[in-house]
């Protein structure tokens, strides 16, 4: 079904809004995928704070170009669906790859991270990164380790002195 000019402008505005809000964009080919599979992918990506939409290639190309993204032609061929990562790029990409495991109809094309083009292998590497909460926890652990060592180092002489007093106390009790 052909779109009118007004409908195309509305679609372009929606695409532009999604691109403006997203940290990362992942493009996939979904030829031959059933609607229930698309809905399952959408649900997993929505859980990570992202969205998954089927796009019209010509309109998507216009929006990407308007946002200063150089889109390789192979990314917008055949049927294209896009995952938009609004909160956590790594978590959304991981959700997409996890949801599409075993689906031969889905082929990873590439994507964008902060307007930089990514090929399929770079998108897979992004999916292998830990989600943002895990990275924060790791950073907190790294920051707390020196403080914990300092506290143990400061407390050790007092602990040693208490052990010496206890040994003398036990020795005195045994003698009595």
How would you portray this structure in words?
By secondary structure, the protein is an alpha+beta fold. It has two domains: 5-129, Ribosomal protein L10, N-terminal RNA-binding domain (Alpha-Beta Plaits, 2-Layer Sandwich), CATH 3.30.70.1730; 131-176. The chain is 59% helix and 16% strand. It contains six helices and five strands. Strands 2-3-1-4-5 form a five-stranded antiparallel beta sheet, sandwiched between helices. The longest helix has 44 residues, at 132-175. It is elongated.
- Name the CATH architecture of the largest domain: 2-Layer Sandwich
Structural class: alpha+beta
CATH superfamily of the largest domain: Ribosomal protein L10, N-terminal RNA-binding domain
Instruction: Report strand order across the widest sheet.
Output: 2-3-1-4-5
Radius of gyration: 27 Å
| Apparent shape | elongated
Discrete helix count: 6
- Spell the H/E element sequence: HEHEHEHEEHH
**Domain module count:** 2
Notable features of this structure?
Alpha-Beta Plaits; 176 residues; 59% helix; 2 domains; 5 strands; single chain; alpha+beta; 5-stranded antiparallel sheet
Write the layout of secondary structure elements.
Layout: H1 5-21, E1 24-29, H2 35-47, E2 50-55, H3 57-66, E3 80-85, H4 89-99, E4 107-113, E5 116-119, H5 120-128, H6 132-175
Antiparallel strand pairs: 1-3, 1-4, 2-3, 4-5
Helix pairs in contact: 1-3, 2-4, 4-5
